[in-house]
Amino acid sequence: MRLFLKVLCLLAAAAVLMSCATQHEIRILHVNDFHGFAAAYKPYGSEEDQGGLAYLAQRVEELRAEKPTLLFAAGDMIQGNNWANLFQGKSSIEAMNVMKFDAMVVGNHEFDFGQTILKQRIEEANFPFLGANVTGLSQLKPFIINNLDGLSIAVIGIVTGDTPTTTHPKNVSGLQFSSPVDTVEKYVRKLRAKNDIIVVLSHIGFSADVDLAKKVEGIDVIVGGHSHTKVAKPVVVGKTHILQAFEHGKVLGVIDLTVKNGRIIRADSRLEPISPTGKENQAVGAIVAKYQQKVDSFMNDTVGESLVDLDGVNVRQQETNLGNLITDIMRKAAGADAAIINGGTIRTSIKKGQIKVSDVYAVVPFDNYIVAIKLTGKQIRETLEHGVSAIDEGAGRFPQVSGLAFTYNRLDPAGSRVKDVFIGGHPLVADKEYTVATNDFLAAGGDGYKAFGDAVKSSKDYAVIGGAMKGDKLVYINAGKWIRDVVIEYIKSRKKISLRVEGRIREVK
């Protein structure tokens, strides 16, 4: 009897040991759509600073010390804020290397500096760049296998198929972007039987991630990006956990997985807010400070000289020479027939004399890019009518224009104030289609510019992907370069600027 009990005890102990041996506690940390926002800042509507890469790095270090951990980036890490843009993403990669990222999926904005620069960033990285549905860029791996705490974890990377329409076409020349669903399905079939966990590192947007989970079985976790979605609680579709960690490093995504016999038996996830309080990772903080000093120095660079005062004060009431300069630059960059912007885009003036980078950034501070849209003459007239509809209020919608001239009478009822309109020196034709350059804000219907918004949304394939629009009515789009940077390049090429008011906008009675 004693022997029997002893054997039972030994068998029970062995069972416990076996159970423990096949149970694993692991952690995945994730960020997405960082866009180079290394310094903490106050988002619109917030009274407190959020983010801060050095503080995020410190939290990563603390959480990594608790259990076996992988750190992933779900795309759009190297482009956006000046901290990244001025160095074409080199600063982001340097910080990510110190933080010991395990993998990153390429985002659509990783292509904004062109393929040559992207290849340089990939070579500099101590972690793999993934892109299973991209053909033609051999530096991108379709998947990787991570061995963590005795588990085999396959990580597949996919980027939005709309990348060719959200960056300049030259940036993706020679590349092909396959269907994310078909691509993931192919690799899950290949990897599922040989690995304990399948993770999809995705830059296709939250709704597309949900659709992916519905269509492809066998995915355990989707770590998403692209749509800047704040997924506070994971969405579970079937057996797939879908995550996304907002934007700009303002939160850190955390998911803790308990895996037993190759199966996830528990998943707990959260978003941890990041703010410039508490401990700072000194190594990452030094990198942030190093590049920020260079940014500050850049802002003091002289880009050219203005021979006259450039008027940014009266842009909400009348034509100004600064309004002419900005719209001329936009029209030429887009190769458009005309350009129309809201005067509120221009925030200040530039005094006669040397022009610094900081002067241009003060004039056009918003993160807007140039688009060119096909509008009929009728829609152009409607656009101009809207522009002068609140002139007595000094509203920011008042237009500044290039390539066209028009007259208006403020005493007439709003909606019927615009009189003569000329494009390229010829009278406007109501049913003729023209190409008009503007900013993405107005193209989306901002400032009440309904005609722009209606034209874009009437496109056969209209969509907004990761903040960038697409559609057949959009004939030019450069989402990878802010208007202020286009202006700086133009002034540098001309060296001296001297513009005057030309009678493009005239009030009549």
Give the total of beta strands. 28
* CATH architecture field of the largest domain: 4-Layer Sandwich
From the 3D structure, determine the CATH topology of the largest domain.
Answer: Purple Acid Phosphatase, chain A, domain 2
Outline the biggest β-sheet. Answer: 6 strands, mixed
Radius of gyration: 27 Å
What is the arithmetic mean of pLDDT?
A: 91
| Total number of domains | 2
**Strand-pairing-aware structural class:** alpha/beta
Strand residue percentage = 25-35%
Which percent bin holds the helix content?
Answer: 25-40%
Helix count from the secondary structure assignment? 15
At the first level of CATH, the class of the largest domain is Alpha Beta
CATH superfamily of the largest domain: Metallo-dependent phosphatases
Q: Strands of the biggest beta sheet: in what spatial order?
A: 4-3-2-1-13-14
Multimer state: single chain
Unreliable parts = 9-20
| End-to-end Cα distance | 114 Å
